[in-house]
Structures are given as C-alpha cells and as structure tokens.
Write a structure and sequence with these properties.
By secondary structure, the protein is mostly helical. It folds into two domains: 47 residues, no CATH class; 141 residues, Orthogonal Bundle (Bovine Mitochondrial F1-ATPase, ATP Synthase Beta Chain, Chain D, domain3), CATH 1.10.1140. Strands 1-2 form a two-stranded antiparallel sheet.
Length: 193
C-alpha cells in the first residue's frame, strides 16, 4: 500500500494499517545499495508476533522470541549510533559501540539480506533463520567478552571466522556449517585473551 503523496497519516491509510496489522516499508536507499529485500527494518512492523511466537517456540526453538527481540534491539541501537557516526565518525565512538555496529552489520548482511538468484538463499526455513541468529549472537557474546578482557576492537573485528557468518545463507548443510562456525568463532576470539 502506498498512499498518494506518501501521506501515511490520512484516515483511510491509518484504518487500513489497523486492520492489516502489518506494514513493510520499502526503502529506496536499501535498493540502491543492492540490499534485497529492501524492506526497512526500522519502519516495518507486524502486530501478529504475539500470535506467532507460540508456534515458533513450539516448532523452532523455545527462545525464538528472545532471539528476535535481541536482534531488533541491536538494530535499533545501530540506528541511534549511525546518527552519531554521521556527525563525528565511527572512530570517535567507544569500543563497545563500534563493536555493536559490527554485530548489526552481520545482522543486516547475513540475516536480513538475501540473494534471490542463489538456489539455496532464495528460501530460508525458520530453523535456518534461528541458527543464523544464534551464530551472530555467539559472535556478539564472545566479542564482548574479548573486549572486556582488554582485546582491542580492531583485533576482534579482524578475526577470520566471523566473516564466514555471511555465508550461512548459501549453505545447503547449514546445521553442520553453523556448528563448526560457532566453535571457530569461540575458539578464535578466546585465543585473543
């Protein structure tokens, strides 16, 4: 739905949004950056999560809602930090905030972005989606442990295992790949301190 002039405050549009309870905001900037699907995660929403969470918790994982909310929180924090980055640059941020930006980048590139032309990445079952999130969260947890132990953020970001998170989407045997990747991320980051 795209109202005339992009005015989402007019009554017909507002009533439609209330009835539909879901809104996917398409973003021209994401499309220009070749991020597909180009759905803006900050403006889009669904009011069905309370109805869907029980299914995901029964069929996929008990902590589905918790993982989803963690990802939303990281992306929200990234949005706030990007405003600061625009003014003073990324290097002016404290190390923990720079690391948050890195985790958010993996959420955007590995989790939210798809390649519709790749035979495997065209479709992502909920189980794979969950494993992608848990892998990114493993990187997050281990990276912040390393940071607290005094490892410079540059060394954490330069690890060899972490960039492989972006390849989960194209893996046919993703369960084995994720298990090995989580172990490699943990081992590599813990070896830094």
């Amino acid at each position: 739905m795209s109202p005339p002039g992009g005015d989402f405050s007019e009554p017909v549009t507002q009533n439609t949004l209330r009835i539909v309870k879901t809104f996917w905001a398409l973003d021209a900037d994401l499309a220009e950056r070749r991020h597909f699907p180009s759905i803006n995660w900050n403006e889009s929403y669904s009011l069905y999560k309370d109805q869907l969470d029980p299914w995901f918790e029964n069929e996929v994982a008990d902590d589905w809602a918790e993982k989803r909310q963690w990802a939303v929180d990281v992306l929200d924090e990234e949005t706030e930090l990007q405003e600061i980055v625009q003014l003073v640059g990324k290097d002016a941020l404290p190390d923990d905030q720079q690391l948050t930006l890195e985790v958010a980048r993996y959420l955007r590139e590995a989790y939210l972005q798809q390649n519709a032309f790749h035979p495997v990445d065209t479709y992502c079952p909920p189980e794979k989606t969950y494993l992608m999130l848990t892998t990114i969260e493993t990187f997050n947890d281990e990276a912040f442990r390393a940071l607290e132990a005094g490892v410079p953020v540059e060394e954490i970001v330069d690890t060899e295992a972490a960039p492989r998170i972006n390849r989960i989407g194209v893996q046919e045997d993703y369960e084995e790949y994720v298990e090995e990747l989580k172990a490699e991320i943990t081992e590599e980051l813990r070896s830094l301190y």
